[in-house]
Design goal:
The chain has 545 residues and is an alpha/beta fold. It contains 16 helices and 17 strands. The strands form 4 sheets. The chain has a 5-stranded parallel beta sheet, sandwiched between helices. Strands 7-9-10-12-11 form a 5-stranded mixed beta sheet, covered by helices on one side. The protein has a 5-stranded parallel beta sheet with strand order 14-13-15-16-17, with helices on both faces. Bound molecules: adenosine-5'-diphosphate.
């Protein structure tokens, strides 16, 4: 380093009298370089400096460690004996990317090439040797402190942001898990209620108010089951646990299925329904049940948010390589600031009013997720309060028609006639077990109920049922373990094992199949599904006699 300029004691010197001395580690270069730089800084700065010298990078690290908080700056005056400036900066900055105190590097020449690299490596400033003067050096060293403090603050904010993002993700995950558990727990009490209603229906005709009360309970139960299913669906989709059963289907079949389930809501509100769909079939690659759920959800909302006697339009058309489904109503409408948020989970336009309408604010969120899973999108449109609403779903159009799915073709899953069977029911929910047993007896079967796994094993051993309906969450032996034990006995090869549980995801179904179950039914089980299972031929003869 050449030392061309004589440091002149400047006016700054007078201001330093009362400022405390600041510790500067002066590193690299020759003793003469360090002497020269220290004099420059002393003469240019308004504060008192206490210089510590270090020839090597290792010595700098030792000084910083030894004086941790007290070191106020590191000034690299020239090449280090053991490493280059970038290596020292990497060691000082560590994984956080910020050194423990500001670092200023004096570079050879004008520093234009090396300077930016040093800044990216963690230095707070650099000065080309060519520009060295007391003023420039003092200003660089002062600015470095400000820049270092800002970098620290940014880093801390960044860390705080990362922490709160991690907390939000964690809370979101817990919410999804909670929703799944809640829905599952709600399904358990729904099961005996559904069984009870089915028993009433099959116990002979009711009359007058008794009939009306039963019908009302059935409607409300249906509503409750839908809410619980929506809750579960939304949490499953958020956790990526929904598999679509894709098939080539017509849009018309989607509309038919949706209309079938929404008709009671539309008729209940005395609304006029107008359907516009082209005659020629429009094909999409989709899951019929899920797409029907989308349209039916929109129709139910249209019926719910339109005063009695309103008008609902359902339209299907082809447009730009897509198929478009539009559900419009002339009801309450949606205000402009709420429109972008109606698809958010738990979003409701007017909570007090909506509470009176029922609902949790999950339907549209579910609809959007299902549409997106199909590669489509959905938009909401409204001119404002009392001006009606329009929801437009766009889905990719499929080119060529494929074969009809079994469900679309209306093929029933089992066609065998129902025979009288010996059925074991195992559920720790006593109401659930008893009501299921009663319903099975009404269907003409012979039934025994037990409430835990060991009772089930004993009853199977003595009584040799043909079908066992087992809950999964049992005290002691779980339903999975019970199934595995039963499957391990070759004498029970003919026993049909049916899981009857509140857990109904694809992975739950896989798990029960792995444990040896033949069928997986989700609570609350419909009588039709039970009848279908009991109509199946036995696996193999259950008894030698
Ligand atoms: P929910 O109906 O259970 O409250 P949704 O997710 O289905 O939940 O709908 C969210 C909100 O969007 C509703 O609370 C309602 O305010 C508004 N909304 C949905 N559909 C319509 C519609 N057709 N007309 C007016 N408002 C609607």
């Amino acid at each position: 380093m050449s030392h061309p300029v004589s440091p002149a004691a400047g006016a700054a010197v007078s201001a330093r009298a009362c400022a405390p001395a600041q510790r500067v580690v002066l590193a690299g270069g020759s003793p003469a370089d360090r002497q020269w730089v220290s004099e420059l800084l002393r003469s240019g700065s308004s504060w008192d400096c206490e210089f510590l010298e270090a020839e090597s990078g290792e010595a700098v690290l030792r000084q910083v460690q030894a004086t941790a908080c007290a070191t106020e700056r590191i000034l690299l005056a020239g090449p280090l004996a053991d490493m280059d400036a970038l290596r020292l900066l990497a060691l000082l900055a560590g994984p956080q990317g910020i050194p423990p105190c500001p670092v200023v590097v004096i570079t050879p020449g004008n520093g234009r090439e090396l300077g930016p690299v040093l800044l990216r490596a963690g230095a707070q400033d650099y000065i080309g040797e060519d520009w060295l003067s007391p003023f420039v050096l003092a200003r660089a060293v002062d600015n470095a402190r400000v820049r270092w403090a800002m970098e620290r603050e940014l880093r801390e904010r960044d860390l705080a942001l990362q922490r709160s993002e991690a907390c939000a993700r964690e809370a979101d995950l817990r919410k999804d898990e909670f929703l799944a558990t809640l829905a599952h727990e709600l399904r358990n009490p729904l099961a005996p209620i559904r069984n009870g209603l089915e028993i009433l229906r099959r116990s002979g005709p009711l009359t007058g108010p008794a009939q009306e009360a039963r019908d009302m309970m059935e409607r409300q139960l249906g509503h409750m089951v839908r809410l619980v299913d929506d809750l579960l669906d939304v949490s499953r989709i958020s956790r990526g646990k929904v598999d679509l059963r894709l098939a080539r289907i017509t849009l018309q079949s989607v509309l038919d299925h949706a209309l079938e389930s929404s008709r009671p809501a539309i008729e209940g509100g005395c609304h006029r329904l107008m359907l516009h769909a082209p005659r020629e079939p429009l094909w999409v690659e989709g899951d019929l049940t899920r797409l029907a759920q989308v349209v039916s959800n929109l129709l139910n909302n249209a019926a719910k948010y339109t005063p009695a006697g309103g008008c609902i339009e359902l339209r299907a058309l082809a447009q730009d390589g897509c198929v478009v489904i539009e559900v419009a109503d002339n009801g309450t409408g949606i205000c402009a600031d709420m429109l972008p948020r109606v698809f958010d989970l738990f979003a409701q336009v007017d909570r007090t009013r909506e509470r009176a309408q029922g609902g949790l604010g999950i339907g549209l969120s579910l609809v959007k997720k299902l549409v997106e899973l199909h590669g489509g999108d959905i938009r909401a449109h409204s001119e404002g309060p009392s001006r009606g609403s329009r929801f437009t779903v766009r889905l990719p159009r499929a080119d060529a028609p494929g074969p009809l799915s079994a469900r679309e073709a209306g093929v029933p899953p089992y066609a065998a006639p129902v025979a009288r069977r010996r059925v074991l029911v195992c559920d720790d929910n006593v109401d659930g077990a008893d009501s299921l047993a009663l319903m099975l007896e009404l269907l003409g079967h012979e039934v025994r109920t037990v409430h835990d796994g060991s009772q089930a094993l004993a009853t199977v051993d003595q009584w040799r049922p043909e079908v066992a309906l087992l809950d999964i969450g049992l005290p002691g032996l779980s339903g999975y373990e019970l199934a595995q034990r039963l499957r391990a006995d070759p004498a029970l090869a003919g026993l049909v094992l049916v899981a009857v549980t509140g857990w109904g995801t694809e992975s739950d179904q896989r798990r029960s199949a792995q444990a040896g179950f033949d069928v997986h039914l989700t609570k609350p089980v419909e009588a039709g599904a039970l009848e279908a299972v009991l109509a199946r031929p036995a696996r193999r003869p259950a008894r030698a006699d």
